[in-house]
Amino acid sequence: MPKLSGEVVLPGDKSISHRAALFSAIREGVSYFENINFNQDCLATIQCLQALGVSIETQEHGKLQIHGKNLKDWQKPEHELNAENSGTTARLLSALLVNLNFATRLIGDDSLSKRPMKRIIEPLTRMGANIKSNDGYLPLEFE
């Protein structure tokens, strides 16, 4: 597959910012972003990725630099991953956590822990993932 490079100008949208961080984290090499939305939800995604060993540098004015690497090179976090109140973090990150070669646990705050996760648990389980949950709610354990 040819290597992609170039520059794209995107709005500082929360949804795009989450996905930019996650896709860049699994892409080997350095990605640079401007106009990233650093709200609490996006920061939860960034902090979870950092806990997994992805080098991320945040800078002022929405600038972000991510040193992505292959999932096999991610590191087991020292503590539980905390999605805080971000359903986007919990759901999108789960699709990556099922592919790691070590166990991880994903938690969230009280509000997020009351939101159903079956809509991601069921399809991921059908695809072969081993996920334990609190009856379809956080915390989620990936083995």
From TrEMBL:
Q: Which residues form the signal peptide?
A: none
Pfam entry (one): EPSP_synthase
Keyword tRNA-binding carried by entry? no
Q: Which GO terms describe its molecular function?
A: 3-phosphoshikimate 1-carboxyvinyltransferase activity
E.C. number(s) listed in UniProt: 2.5.1.19
Which UniProt key words apply to this protein?
A: Transferase
Keyword flag Transferase: yes
Question: GO BP, one example?
Answer: chorismate biosynthetic process
The protein's matches in InterPro entries, at most eight in alphabetical order, are given as:
Enolpyruvate_Tfrase_dom, Enolpyruvate_Tfrase_sf, RNA3'P_cycl/enolpyr_Trfase_a/b
Where in this chain does the entry annotate a coiled-coil region?
Answer: none
Q: Which residues form the Enolpyruvate transferase domain?
A: 3-141
First-level EC class: transferase
Name the domain of life this protein comes from.
Bacteria
Name of the featured protein: 3-phosphoshikimate 1-carboxyvinyltransferase
**What's the source species for this entry?**
Caldithrix abyssi
